[in-house]
Amino acid sequence: MPHLFARLLALAALLVLPAAVAGIVAPRTTSPSGNVALPLGHNDQTFKILQLADMHIKTGTDYGCLNIPRDGSPCGDRNTTDFIGRLLDDERPDLVVFTGDNVAFPPDAKKAIEIFTEPVINRSIPWAAVFGNHDAQGNMDNAQMMDIIESLPHTVTSFGPRDIDGVGNFAVEVIDSSNETVFSLFFLDSGAYSTDPDIGGYDWIRPSQVAWYRNASAEISYNNPHDPPELVFFHIPFPEYHNATENVVGDKQERVNSAQVNGGFFAALTDVGKAVATFVGHDHVNDFCGRSPENPLLALCYGGGVGYGTYGRRSWERRARIINIEDGGRLVRTWKRLDTGPKGTPMPMVHEQILWQANW
Ligand SMILES: *[C@@H]1O[C@H](CO)[C@@H](O)[C@H](O)[C@H]1NC(C)=O
Ligand SMILES: *[C@@H]1O[C@H](CO)[C@@H](O)[C@H](O)[C@H]1NC(C)=O
Ligand SMILES: *[C@@H]1O[C@H](CO)[C@@H](O)[C@H](O)[C@H]1NC(C)=O
Ligand SMILES: *[C@@H]1O[C@H](CO)[C@@H](O)[C@H](O)[C@H]1NC(C)=O
Ligand SMILES: *[C@@H]1O[C@H](CO)[C@@H](O)[C@H](O)[C@H]1NC(C)=O
């Protein structure tokens, strides 16, 4: 009997092992501040985030792709999800962040959400999503889509407080094996279009959200012996991106399409002093990180467009940003991967840089 038991255990271990290799994570925990907590990987050393910007998933079918860098037909949403699958297999991120315009004008938003989340869910990778200005232009509003997103496996996304502006303002904490938070990740809904008839253009992160950020950030510091540094994700760049002209790494090929109003979020991040980088999408052919003289300690980054069904640039590959927390949370490195062709071709790594390094 003991032998049989041991053999059963060995068999169980064999059955469990491939799942562990495939990246299935421990059951998620909640931090004392009430946020989802995800563990640092590789013996408390690293945590890799893949940012996927502006997928613009519509129906999952083929249609003429826009501004593709090479000839390729048929072409459509499946080229976008193929690229995502190859990125996931090559980079094996610990978290995937969809930074908005995940879907665009979807006739069936539920189906469109299932299409872009499938490669991530299939691989059991935790993921977070924020909304852009095009997500709600199909058959559902953001609250309806959030109900679907929250019900899907492996997501760390949450609706967030209902008494502030936006849908999907939430924080996630990256913790070490002693349960100390080494990094906080903030996700905000930067809205869609201005609802003020006197102001045109895009929406902005509102004062209620800025107040929520200040409180949530303070709560995390209150519950930890050190102030954890922060990474911040949202869709529409704030006006300070116009001034991100110092230490630029990457390409700027269109204007910064920020709101006309400054909602004060950059000022709050500067005042709180814990954020080391922000990551937005929205402007598909900008993929740079730069710094504004108003706060050179904060890197202002774009992801670069992933989606084939929306505008890109003919001589410029679709791409995605990797953000790698290293050295147990004391260093943040970033780079991008380019889609140069079908399965089997390499995805060149470009624009590698260190965004932040601790002075402890
Ligand atoms: C899109 O995917 C199809 C099917 O795999 C392929 O034939 C085509 O070349 C791809 N297009 C681009 C631009 O990569
Ligand atoms: C995900 O898994 C399902 C079921 O095994 C499979 O049908 C589908 O093709 C997979 N999708 C991706 C993107 O790998
Ligand atoms: C960390 O927290 C989990 C539960 O959230 C607990 O099971 C574990 O013992 C804690 N570890 C340490 C080192 O405190
Ligand atoms: C955050 O807000 C809650 C509710 O208003 C309050 O109880 C708490 O003290 C605040 N936390 C901090 C650190 O300001
Ligand atoms: C950008 O820089 C200009 C020139 O220094 C300055 O007047 C402006 O206030 C800055 N804008 C923002 C949003 O910081």
UniProtKB/TrEMBL annotation:
InterPro entries attached to this UniProt entry: Calcineurin-like_PHP, Metallo-depent_PP-like, PAP14/16/28/29
Signal peptide region: 1-23
Keyword Signal: yes
Assigned GO CC terms: cytoplasm
Residue ranges the record marks as coiled coil: none
Keywords: Signal
GO molecular function, one term: hydrolase activity, acting on ester bonds
Highest taxon of the lineage: Eukaryota
Record's keyword annotation contains Protein biosynthesis: no
Record-given protein name: Calcineurin-like phosphoesterase domain-containing protein
Species the sequence originates in: Fonticula alba
Native organism taxonomy: Eukaryota, Rotosphaerida, Fonticulaceae, Fonticula
